[in-house]
Amino acid sequence: MRPDFHYELMQARVTDLRHHAHRDALARAVGQARPARTPPSGRAVARLPAATRRMLAVLGARST
User: Fold this and answer.
1) String of DSSP letters for 1-47
2) Is the pTM of this model over 0.85?
3) Domain span at 9
């Protein structure tokens, strides 16, 4: 193989490996991230004790 072809192939391989490493790092970060907490739905809030419903209303939680 000619040296200039070998150099270009190695550059492409290094670029590809870096791309895969970056993609894998992002996938690991997403997998380790904590899921966002969703506010309780209207039905779930209705089943809570009255004191808890008042506290959620004071804190600004949705109660639809």
Assistant:
1) --HHHHHHHHHHHHHHHHHHHHHHHHHHHHHHSPPPPPPPPHHHHHT
2) no
3) 3-33+40-59
